[in-house]
Amino acid sequence: MLIERQSVGLVEPQRYVFGSPQDPLVLDSGRMLEPVEQVYETYGRPNADRSNAVLICHALSGDAHAAGIHTPHDKRVGWWDSMIGPGKAFDTERYWVICANVIGGCKGSTGPNTTNPATGNPYGSDFPLITIGDMVEAQKRLTEHLGIEKLFCVAGGSMGGFQALEWALRYPTHVHSVISIAAGANLSVQGIAFNAVGRHAITSDPDWQGGHFYGTAGPVRGLASARMVAHITYLSEISLNHKFGRRLQSADRLSYDINHEFAVESYLNHQGTRFTERFDANSYIYITKAMDYFDIVRTYGPLKEAFAQMPSRFLLISYNSDWLFPTRQSREIVQALTAGDRDVSFIEVDSPHGHDAFLIETERLTRITAAFLDGSQRSRPLAE
Amino acid sequence: MPNDPRRVNYVNTLSQTDVDIIAALIPEGAQVLDLGCGDCSLLGELVTRKNVRGRGVDIDGERLVRGMSLGLPVYQGDLDDGLADFADQAYDYVILNQTLQVVKHPQIVLREMMRIGRFGIVGFPNFGHLALRSGLFFGGRAPKSSALPFEWYNTPNIRVLTIKDFRAFCREENLRIVSEHLLILNQWRGHWLARRGANLLAHIGIFVVTRRDGAPNAR
User: Fold this and answer.
1) Among the options A205, A292, A322, A356, which is catalytic?
2) H/E/C letters for each residue in chain B?
3) Is the CB of residue B134 less than 8 Å away from at least one CB of chain A?
4) What is the pLDDT of residues A245-259, one digit of tens each?
5) Complex ipTM
6) Per-residue model confidence as pLDDT tens digits over A115-149
């Protein structure tokens, strides 16, 4: 009973298509994209003036399915189900929560695996490179379509945090509050390096076929390797130690076998394989590229200047064991906003779960987020 | 230690008496930074009563959550790590209430405070109080009182200072004491007689200080 009350229950993905040869989406790269399709889900209801809209931005491997279930017997709930629902952090009794698959993604929105109108075949590697800014641009069009003048909040973790920050910078007057979790003003060089290894694994897999592998199995081995490497960056030394330590996979004696000896090996292998069942290798390339390109300083100038006039309220959250997006990166932004006397809050959460903490440790995140949203209503009361 | 319920209660008990006096000291609409703000109860009161623009800093993120729900900007940080994120003379008042005695580097914190704010409000327990002195003198044990209930080995109060000590510190640091407020026998007093006897009789001192040399780094 309690579980039912807390869940948003059955949800149905929706679609919104915009853009035409006369009116394409002009990308940051200068290339054009049309038509642009976005799959999105909404939870809760809009209030009278649609001022209670909260946009949730997903991370690299996420999708529009942030909460609830798709069929009555669906065993898998949305990727942030613990955060979105009645009485949860993003309380659907109060907020109208929206989540859309990013463009370049592979979960229904226009991306490398969708049909190129020029050829009638999937884009593959002919898909134009996209940026976090392009993703936000598409989301902006979606919010206009939904009749939202100003978002009450934009929130996301990791690449979702990039999008939330980009929203604030690109459309400062269209965002009341911003929550950036385990993100920063750019992807660190270390992050780019790991992404490069992942992309290399995919493109050097002969089954990638220059990116035009649709109709075949595709570079599953390359994609699995990419995921294995990336997965390590989402964990911490503490969590790896805690989960696996040096435990052996099947015996208590060394088998001196080339195959999996340690538990962590088969875990990563499993993660890699499972990922290939749900993710497109080209999307992986495009989205990691978009993350590499993200750089607030390059696009908007020094952080202090970029954030000097921000009218939005900000909440930045970092995790002390996250080494992919260390606390320092969130604090850079906090520092810039503080220097300009902007409305910014910052919390560093003590957690052993590394970068993945924002998906795992949602209890503390709930308290922090809910309080921030409550506080945000003081300066922008919501209509009934 | 920050979550020690005794510490929380202790600070809360003190705060209840402090709120009124600090609220009286701060002008309407001032820019206020509260260092060691805990759950932002003081700052929340100042916003309600004095319409201040406030920001809170505390090491304990869990307690800051309440401040956030009041709509206050809060910042989780360790005062001992410095306050480099805050610009020179960015605030009218920087409050350091019942926090001075728990920091590792009081001198750095106080200097940072006076760099960031035009005025500092510093409140701390007076370890020179008669009861504590006599406890040490006659009992021969590390001082304890109802306001300072801790043992030497678990007290969060690692800096033991008296009213006199703080006055001397201000002289050395070239700070001008704008006003002194002393809690003597459950009443806040500030007249000269109270000041004379404060080192022996005051449980708590609250000082308003400012830099004598003005603010060389002012914006």
Assistant:
1) A322
2) CCCCHHHHHHHHHHHHHHHHHHHHHCCCCCEEEEECCCCCHHHHHHHHHHCCEEEEEECCHHHHHHHHHCCCCEEECCHHHCCCCCCCCCEEEEEEECCHHHCCCHHHHHHHHHHHEEEEEEEEECCCCHHHHHHHHHHCCCCCCCCCCCCCCCCCCCCCCCHHHHHHHHHHCCEEEEEEEEEECCEEECCHHHHHHHHHHEEEEEEEEEECCCCCCCC
3) no
4) 999 987 778 888 887
5) 0.87
6) 999 999 999 999 999 999 999 999 999 999 999 99
